Amino acid sequence: MSAQYSTFGLAPAIRAGGVLADGGYQAHRDFMDFIVDGRPLLFQLSDLDAVSPLASDVAPAIFATHVRRLLLEADAPLADGRYVIYGCPECESLECGAVTAVIERDGTDVVWRDFAWQTYGTVDLERGGYHGIGPFRFDGEQYRAELEQLLPADGTTDTQRDGPAARRRVLLIGARVAVLAKLAAALRTIGIGADIAQDAAGVPAAELRGYGAVAFGLAVTDAERAAVREAFGRAGADVAYVDGTAPVIPLLVARIENALDRTPPSGRRLLGLTVTEGTACLEVSSTCRVSLVAYRLDLLHRTRTDEVFDGVLAAGEHRIPLEARVAKGRSSLVARSAGSVLIATVAP
Description:
- The protein is α+β, with helices and mostly antiparallel strands.
- It has 3 domains: 5-161, no CATH class; 168-264, Response regulator (Rossmann fold), CATH 3.40.50.2300; 268-348, Immunoglobulin-like.
- It contains 9 helices and 21 strands.
């Protein structure tokens, strides 16, 4: 086994939720990703829609068990000393498939090896193994220090106390209650809390600090927006603001998902989306599946949806031509991968 060391770290990541073009829903998940040699390990697994076991929405006791397993302080959940590295973002069933690996001590070091795609109790490394991934040898002291940060003395995990889950709530402010109610229902369906109000007056500072974003309706005036921003400023709340757009629920959900994403650029798969002369320009940091959907309102204010692209893109810049009906009128493009959402406006 190679004696070369890899660095080990953790960083917040998301599996972006949303209302899909076919009317289905995709759950929003916040989790801690594994950073190996300065790069998210998930990115090395190509087109994979998955989350690590260190998800912020699991019960504290279960979260602590996952951490202690990675620290080799609890038994492996699978045969042959195998541990789940990434699993299904919608459920915890092994039948959906999971990336697993053997984790073991080698002296004072910790080694991750024999990565594989697993759907049953045993693994066939010849057929299901990730032959180009690992083994990774981590310095035991550095490895332990990173994971132990998730287990503070009070028994509450950092990700559940101060991390993404605590700020996965949105305050919706506007006059069109019917639209806001539909938006709130869609957000709650994918795992994002949503409250509706006319303003932020009289809301306790502690409650305001629990929000990650504020979305304004089209009818909210500049003065009303300023008052809301002032209230959040007095509370010391660092929130993202989403200005009102066309009342298209999938588009509004995508804008809020984008606003809630605090992942650093190095941890994102979609880096940029622009539209120039009838062409969508998309920059991707690593190989992944990308969907590109256009939304617009017709003259009768009905929502029109056009699926522009759905496929696997390699890292780099890509130019995707838009059909005339997409460019006609004022459309919005939503690019979505497993971990990122970007929006761009198509000017007629």
